[in-house]
Write a structure and sequence with these properties.
The chain has 1 helix and 11 strands; from the N terminus they run H-E-E-E-E-E-E-E-E-E-E-E. The protein is an alpha+beta fold. A 4-stranded antiparallel β-sheet has the order 2-3-4-9, with no helix packed on it. A 4-stranded antiparallel β-sheet has the order 5-6-7-8, with no helix packed on it. A 3-stranded antiparallel β-sheet has the order 1-11-10, with no helix packed on it. The N and C termini lie far apart (64 Å). The chain binds FE2/S2 (inorganic) cluster.
Length: 138
């Protein structure tokens, strides 16, 4: 009788411990692994017609802002839109043909190179491919 009670208590404690670990551990694990938006391997498709020559189309790539450009007819590029200074989102200035960061005045050309201000590095370049009528980022 005492053996049965002991086994029951061990099983009950073990089951409760596992449930509590899962209950606390899952949210903790989710907090420690940042949400990547559409998945780490996600690609973004943008219709070619949405990116005019000399223009820019902002999209979300892996949960962060990015921008697709067509600097010359039929040539597409993509950059991260996250400023390399402190992480603000750059704005495209079509009249100037460059990007401006609203936070501290950083400026980047359409290749992502720093033109002015405090950004220490160029905007990150993203992989781009053309697939039919779409541009595929990533
Ligand atoms: S965050 Fe862009 S210039 Fe400071």
């Amino acid at each position: 009788m005492a053996d049965n009670r002991r086994r029951f208590l061990v099983a009950a404690i073990g089951t409760t411990g596992a449930a509590l670990t899962a209950l606390v551990g899952w949210p903790l694990l989710r907090t420690l692994t940042p949400d990547s938006g559409e998945g780490a391997d996600a690609q973004v498709r943008v219709p070619r017609k949405d990116v005019p020559v000399g223009g820019a189309k902002f999209v979300q790539y892996k949960g962060k802002p990015a921008v697709v450009l067509q600097p010359e007819p039929g040539k597409f590029t993509a950059l991260s839109a996250v400023c390399t200074h402190l992480g603000c989102i750059v704005k495209f200035k079509p009249e100037q043909g460059d990007f401006e960061c609203p936070c501290h005045g950083g400026r980047f050309d359409t290749k992502g190179e720093v033109l002015a201000g405090p950004p220490p590095e160029p905007l990150a370049t993203l992989a781009v491919a053309v697939d039919g009528d779409d541009i595929v980022v990533g």
